[in-house]
Design a protein that fits this description.
Blueprint (H helix, E strand, L loop, with lengths): L2 H7 L12 H8 L7 E4 L2 E4 L2 E4 L6 E4 L7 H14 L5 H15 L4 H5 L7 H8 L2 H7 L19 H15 L4 H6 L6 H8 L2 H7 L6 H17 L20 H15 L4 H6 L6 H8 L2 H6 L7 H21 L1
Antiparallel strand pairs: 1-4, 2-3
């Protein structure tokens, strides 16, 4: 059984929340940083052409204290070399035929999880494509077309009609919105049939202008970031009595949003129906980092980026645990 499959079954993810693959396991086991070494000079650029450098000419330097003993790392490298199998083209095809007889079907996932067949990347490198390899063993992969409610293949007219209904309900179209709709095939399938978002809008007779895209982005932000129904936010540059919004009022808006969400982004400000857009904040307060600093939020661009990265990592870990 592949090591990555066992780790994934235990719900142990990478530091970025992704599942382990054969490539990431091998890359981790062979990374010299775990013994404190940073290696550079593995390749050199000769007038735009990368050329591999012999290992004896690599440059190694100590950058941190070892995380694991050197003996353990060297033992892992020895096992990696001994476990490496270099199949001939005939052996690869024989392995694929054996796997097909066992599973009845060949897919990327089935091949990756099989320990006696080379990786899909190696197969493509040897035979040009997966389809070419399939043809060599006489395998014709089935073509999957998502059925409509009547059990038949969607027509282009049916797809456009369902997309029109979705657009009328939400006020915009996006890749995420289409993929989240259980009554529609995936966006990739729709894109192959009728085109991307711009072509879909054009075929439905809807405007594909910069202003239309701006309004669609605003509605999407309101729906995804704040959970509000998509609707146009009027510009809030003046108070109801006609007076201009003061800098103090802008700071009060930021304090309210920070208290509500726990952090600040331009998306949250754009989605809020009661305060001006981020560009107005920039004009009046100098920049968004300066505006954030006035309410005690991360003041430098680096601190803002670090905070955003931490939120993203926390979200990925939460999703992985589910």
């Amino acid at each position: 059984m592949c090591q990555e499959a066992g780790v994934n079954r235990q719900r142990q993810t990478q530091s970025n929340g992704s599942r382990w693959t054969h490539a990431t396991v091998r890359r981790t086991l062979s990374n010299p940083l775990y013994v404190g070494d940073y290696v550079f000079g593995r390749k050199r650029n000769n007038l735009g052409l990368e050329v591999a450098v012999p290992e004896t000419d690599w440059v190694r330097t100590k950058v941190l204290d070892p995380i694991i003993p050197l003996e353990m790392f060297e033992a892992a490298q020895t096992r990696l070399v001994n476990c490496r199998q270099l199949f001939t083209n005939e052996e690869i095809l024989a392995g694929m035929s054996r796997l097909l007889a066992e599973k009845g079907v060949l897919t990327h996932k089935v091949i990756v999880e099989c320990h006696y067949v080379s990786s899909p990347a190696t197969i493509v490198q040897r035979f040009g494509s997966m389809v070419a390899a399939y043809q060599r063993i006489g395998y014709d992969p089935p073509k999957y077309y998502p059925p409509n409610p009547q059990g038949r293949r969607y027509t282009s007219a049916e797809l456009l009609e369902r997309l029109r209904t979705l657009h009328e309900d939400q006020g915009f179209l996006s890749v995420r919105l289409i993929n989240d709709d259980n009554s529609l095939p995936s966006y990739n399938y729709i894109c192959a049939r009728v085109g991307g978002i711009s072509k879909i809008l054009a075929k439905m007779g809807l405007p594909v202008t910069a202003e239309a895209q701006r309004l669609a982005t605003l509605k999407r932000t309101q729906r995804d970031v704040v959970g509000m129904p998509g609707r146009f936010k009027p510009r809030r540059h003046r108070n109801p009595d006609g007076t201009r919004v003061t800098n103090e009022q802008l700071v009060d808006h930021l304090k309210r949003l920070l208290s509500l969400h726990g952090y600040l982004t331009t998306e949250i400000i754009s989605a809020d129906p009661y305060c001006p857009d981020p560009q107005f904040f920039r004009r009046r307060l100098g920049s968004m980092p300066r505006a954030y600093a006035l309410v005690g939020y991360a003041g430098s661009r680096r601190e803002i980026a670090v905070a955003a990265h931490a939120r993203s990592a926390a979200t990925k870990n939460t999703k992985a645990q589910r």
